[in-house]
Here is the input.
Amino acid sequence: MRGGPVREETRPFWRRYSVAGGLLLLAVGVSLWFWWGRQTAMQAVQAPSHCALPAQPASAPHPGMVWVPGGTFEFGDTENPEEQPIRQTTVAGVWMDRTEVTNDEFAGFVRATGYVTLAERAVDVTKHTGLPPDMQQPGAVVFVMPNDVRGGGHVTQWWRYLPGANWRHPGGPTTSIDGRGAFPVVTLAFEDAQAYARWKGRSLPSEAQWEWAARAGQTRAAQDHAQPAQANTWQGLFPVVNSGDDGFVGLAPVGCYAPNALGLFDMIGNVWELTSDAYTPTHPEPGVALPMPSDVRAVAAVGQRVIKGGSFLCAPNYCMRYRSGARQPQDDDLGTSHLGFRTILIAPGP
Ligand SMILES: [Ca+2]
Here is the structure.
């Protein structure tokens, strides 16, 4: 007879309502947090459309590139299984683009050659049977910020295949790259990046070449795996709250953050970068030859490539791959809105 409701009525007012009040405050707090994130995101839309790069001497042999001296280093890191085993690796010196390839640069290639990217071509449904109807149309995978995350938080809640998305319309058919010439070109497939590199007389870096260049002379991975300050990454709770504290909530124009000690910009963050290496779940054991960019066999008949550096979507609660040693696989035949590339040139040093 003396059940719960009676006892409930005898409790002081403040105790009766403390739970409900706490929940209300929590709801208000979360709402404000979302609102603040969105407001900051809207302000960050006003971010610059390009960032000035330091002048290079007129005598620079390969404008837009910097020399990466050869060296021996501890290739790999300890954060994730795929970064291991760490193996001592020697790479020769190469010239490397000091920024990611931009929309303007890729547009120059397309104007000169008439090249059509994979995301713009008809989908060969005979090679990909069982595709849902939207994926049978040309397009690419685009990050779309969700309002909330349900269940276990499957990636399909923020990654969507959008018909009509391609390098000219990187956020989907209603978006464009007008005024975004200095932004990294995205939604390219591996063969598109390779075609651009070949046209320039260059190639894509191998994973080891890329990682050594990102280290800028440090022979070991930094022990501090913290989120870097000088890189375009995600601040807040991925994928729903991005404060944009680093100035950008999405892609940034190339060269907006301090370069590494070699003068290379955005090696970490902004967009992931393609390498020429076929993806393997771990590094090859010491003694097993690493694939080299000139080795055509390494880039033929494989489905996934190693990508490096992390992107604007890497947050402390998700991805966390804003490190030189981090790596992920990328399907060769799919463009995404967080993936770009830069090229290397094998030529005598300065
Ligand atoms: Ca990058």
About this structure: Helices lie at 4-10, 13-16, 18-44, 103-113, 190-199, 207-215. The domain at 47-345 is CATH 3.90.1580.10 (paralog of FGE (formylglycine-generating enzyme)). Confidence is low (pLDDT under 50) at residues 1-25, 39-45, 293-300. The two ends are 92 Å apart (CA to CA).
